[in-house]
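Structure in, sequence out. Go:
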């Protein structure tokens, strides 16, 4: 098996070379948000979607727009508002008087990169219009079904600041996102740079550095990243500890968790760990990759009880407790 892993490792090292190119290109415009850029690439390579949470003004919209320019993809932005209708997202049938017939007008969802801005501002029926696209990669308008272009990445943003007129995303919908990333403020020296560049309008111009075909090819390479059975077992132990903490010396967590992660969580964690290894230009997954991705993959997949809220315990605290307890291979 050893030779095999070495061969995969050499192949991945060559094929992941574009990651640095892409990161450097995005860094021309996005200053200091290293984690956000990394998570976007993992979503792109893992064929998943990303939910970004952060206060306004942290370059969430700019990040996905920059990514779409760097990979020559089409980009569309949908501003979610309380009066938005599903047809505004997916498209609708329009009556054409001249031809005395209906024609289909496609909505903004037909793009490689779709930014669902402030997704929690629109009611459930609009949020669910997005779900068929996210899960099945297709859209149904009238009696016709359209396949969406590959790659297809939805990046939704939501505001953590408690405001009037938001509709929290139901658990089943949040579960469709591969990662939920919480973005923090930039560091002081980064913000100084952002301020200077904005005042002098001196942001670099983003050039296309990779094609959509290369992204689709890179996804196949990600699947080839070697994952040992011990690592698979480690991932499953982490997931099962969210469901049955008492089996992992974590009985104290039992009253704090209302529900654990679904199998979608174990698939997403395995996929994200492979993508993380790929980005780090490695052809095999190590426990560190799993630990690095566990928070973003699981923070929205663990339900916490009122008791946990009373004790000021968040899903992140629960994940930390599980990661510290579950045996590392």
């Amino acid at each position: 098996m050893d030779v095999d892993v070495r061969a995969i490792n050499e192949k991945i090292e060559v094929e992941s070379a574009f990651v640095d190119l892409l990161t450097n290109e995005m860094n021309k415009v996005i200053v200091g948000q290293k984690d956000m850029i990394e998570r976007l690439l993992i979503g792109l390579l893992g064929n998943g979607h990303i939910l970004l949470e952060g206060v306004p003004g942290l370059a969430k919209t700019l990040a996905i727009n920059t990514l779409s320019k760097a990979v020559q993809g089409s980009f569309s932005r949908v501003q979610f508002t309380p009066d938005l209708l599903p047809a505004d997202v997916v498209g609708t049938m329009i009556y054409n008087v001249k031809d005395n017939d209906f024609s289909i007008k496609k909505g903004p969802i037909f793009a490689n990169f779709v930014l669902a801005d402030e997704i929690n501002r629109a009611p459930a029926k609009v949020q669910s219009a997005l779900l068929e696209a996210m899960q099945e990669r297709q859209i149904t308008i009238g009696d016709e079904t359209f396949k969406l272009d590959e790659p297809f990445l939805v990046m939704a943003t939501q505001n953590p600041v408690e405001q009037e007129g938001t509709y929290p995303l139901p658990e089943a919908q949040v579960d469709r996102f591969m990662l939920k990333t919480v973005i923090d403020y930039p560091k002081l020296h980064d913000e100084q740079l952002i301020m200077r560049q904005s005042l002098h309008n001196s942001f670099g111009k983003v050039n296309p550095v990779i094609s959509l075909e290369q992204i689709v090819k890179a996804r196949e390479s990600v699947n080839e990243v070697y994952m040992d059975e011990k690592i698979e077992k480690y991932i499953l132990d982490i997931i099962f500890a969210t469901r049955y903490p008492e089996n992992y010396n974590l009985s104290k967590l039992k009253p704090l968790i209302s529900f654990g992660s679904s199998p979608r969580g174990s698939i997403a964690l395995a996929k994200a760990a492979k993508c993380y290894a790929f980005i780090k230009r490695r052809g095999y997954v190590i426990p560190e990759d799993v630990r690095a991705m566990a928070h973003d993959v699981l923070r929205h997949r663990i339900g916490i009880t009122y008791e946990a809220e009373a004790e000021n315990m968040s899903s992140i605290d629960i994940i930390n407790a599980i990661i510290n307890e579950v045996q590392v291979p």
